[in-house]
Design a protein that fits this description.
alpha+beta; Conserved hypothetical protein from pyrococcus furiosus pfu- 392566-001, ParB domain; six-stranded mixed sheet; three-stranded antiparallel sheet; 13 helices; 50% helix; elongated
């Protein structure tokens, strides 16, 4: 049941295009459900607890924005973090602003409002852009016009979704930066992405260092996908694994079609190369 309905003022009314059914109200918390288009999927538990304590003391200062989906059911357009914290605080009612919105309009309202926030992680932003483009059937260029972002910015965030899932988690937890992630996207093989990601995390590598490693790898055709080798025998494969462990580097033994054998060693830095040279007394 909707309680304490009151009309909106002229200034707020103008912001929402003077839709007659828009108004402020109090709703039972059981009447409100989360937004299926919510771009944020990673809610920090300690932050929610902190917000819930604030809500216990001061109440909800900014009402949630919702839309009516049936007589006694409302769906959040924005304010899901406040909704979750309110449940933790034990609130039974919520102050809301009820807005008329169809499914497509709700998707657009929810995502556009939320992607303007500064606390979304890069993966959440990429998912939001991708969802808007697919659900509204628009181009990156059209989305660029709607949200005031460069098309290249939108494209770069969406491309982050091509990274290995562990790397995406690293971005979400701010273990690495977008600057580190961009060079990894030049590696189509997700296992290679992950290998270099682990190196970044272990060595606190700079973006420039990673860019150089990838450039040198490509120059050596290390990342070339062309099949110029035949399958290794079990003995050669075992030797390859032992060498890789011994040298602490990525080792490839290639059995060429003419019967010759080729060994490639990828040194992840110049320092590792010189250590290898010193060890074999060259």
């Amino acid at each position: 049941m909707v309680n304490n309905r009151f009309g909106i003022g002229r200034g707020v009314d103008a912001l929402f295009s003077k839709v007659d059914s828009n108004f402020f109200a109090k709703l039972s918390i059981d009447q409100v459900s989360p937004n299926p288009y919510q771009p944020r999927t990673n809610f920090n538990k300690s932050d929610l607890i902190e917000l819930s304590e604030s809500i216990k003391q001061y109440g909800i200062i900014q009402p949630l924005t919702v839309r009516r989906v049936s007589d006694n059911n409302y769906q959040i357009i924005s304010g899901e973090r406040r909704y979750k914290a309110s449940k933790l605080a034990g609130l039974t009612t919520l102050p809301v602003y009820i807005k008329q919105a169809q499914d497509n309009q709700m998707l657009e309202l929810a995502l556009i409002e939320n992607i303007q926030r500064e606390d979304l992680d890069p993966i959440e932003i990429g998912i939001s852009y991708k969802t808007l483009i697919e659900e509204l059937n628009i181009t990156q260029e059209k989305l660029s016009e709607k949200i005031g972002k460069k098309r290249s910015t939108i494209s770069n965030y969406i491309r982050l979704l091509q990274l290995h899932p562990i790397i995406q988690a690293g971005l979400r937890d701010f273990i690495i930066t977008i600057g580190h992630a961009k060079p990894l996207l030049s590696l189509s093989n997700q296992n290679k992405q992950l290998e270099l990601y682990n190196y970044i995390v272990s060595n606190s590598s700079s973006v420039r260092e990673i860019e150089n490693i990838i450039k040198e790898s490509k120059d050596l055709h290390y990342l070339n996908n062309k099949k110029t080798t035949t399958k290794l025998s079990s003995n050669l494969f075992s030797l390859q694994e032992n060498l890789a462990e011994l040298l602490e580097s990525n080792v490839k033994i290639k059995s060429l079609k003419n019967g010759k054998k080729k060994v490639e060693i990828l040194f992840i830095s110049e320092k590792k190369l010189y250590e290898f040279i010193e060890n074999i007394k060259l």
